[in-house]
Each structure stands twice: as structure tokens, then as C-alpha cells.
Amino acid sequence: MAARPSGRTDILPGEREIRETADTLRRAELKGTEILPLYARLSNEEQNRVFASHRGRRIVLATNVAETSLTVPGIRYVIDPGLVRISRYSYRSKIQRLPVEAVSQASANQRKGRCGRIAEGVCIRLYSEEDFYPGLALPILRFSAPTWRR
């Protein structure tokens, strides 16, 4: 019986982190592994490559859009570094910013839900259990902070 293709999704804060990770993985020349970036500025054709059939291993490097908006076939693992780039408006400087922040617990749970949609899956969180659970010293917000004010 032939091995089924398997893959993983790494959820990264932004396009720069995705490009840098993709370059590093490609230089490693991982045999039989396809590296697929996935972020908003890619063409539709490039974005749709993640849904095409494939053989061997696949690593999808995606922004937090992968938390809720799509299900990629064959993903058995999700790597969650616990970071997200969130749009914030600075009232003091009157500009929109995109700082990297700790992911909310709700978003972390959504990320976990991306693995094993069809078969058993594993989510590997790259932060401590204390950072995840409420009531402990945690940089991860229990709920997403509001992005607007009344």
C-alpha cells in the first residue's frame, strides 16, 4: 500500500516571514517536499496551487487567513508559533500599524482546527502551556483585543 501524501501548515505573522521561511526550506533541498507560500498578494494561480493534487510531502506557509478561511487537503500537522500581525490604529501618531503580537486563545484554537480535517492531525504550538491557559502569566490574550472604539 502506497503512503498517502501528507503535509503541514506553518502559520506565520506575515509575507516577509513566509518568504524567508520558504527560502530557508528550499535551500535545505528537502527531498520529495513541495514548499507552498500562501498570502494575499500572490496571484490566484499561485494561491490555488495549495488545492492541487500532489505526491509526497507538502509544507504550506500561510498567514493567519489559514485559521478560518480555507481547508487545505492532506494537512496533518499545523505549526503554530503563537504570533499574528494585526492592524492597529495609533491615535497618538494618527497612523495604521501592523505590529506582531501574541495570538489570542480563540485564534490559537482555530489554528489547531486546521489540521486533521479528514484524518487524525497534530498541532504543534511553539509556545509554553503557561502562555496558552488563562490565569497564568500569559502574553497570549484570552480574547482578541478590539480593533475599533466607540
Automatic annotation (TrEMBL):
Residues annotated as domain Helicase C-terminal: 1-150
UniProt GO molecular function: ATP binding; helicase activity; hydrolase activity; RNA binding
Keyword terms of this UniProt record: ATP-binding, Helicase, Hydrolase, Nucleotide-binding
Top-rank taxon, per record: Bacteria
Record InterPro entries: Helicase_C-like, P-loop_NTPase
Record SMART domains: HELICc
Name recorded for this polypeptide: Helicase C-terminal domain-containing protein
UniProt source species: Vreelandella sulfidaeris
Pfam families referenced in this protein's UniProt entry, alphabetically: Helicase_C
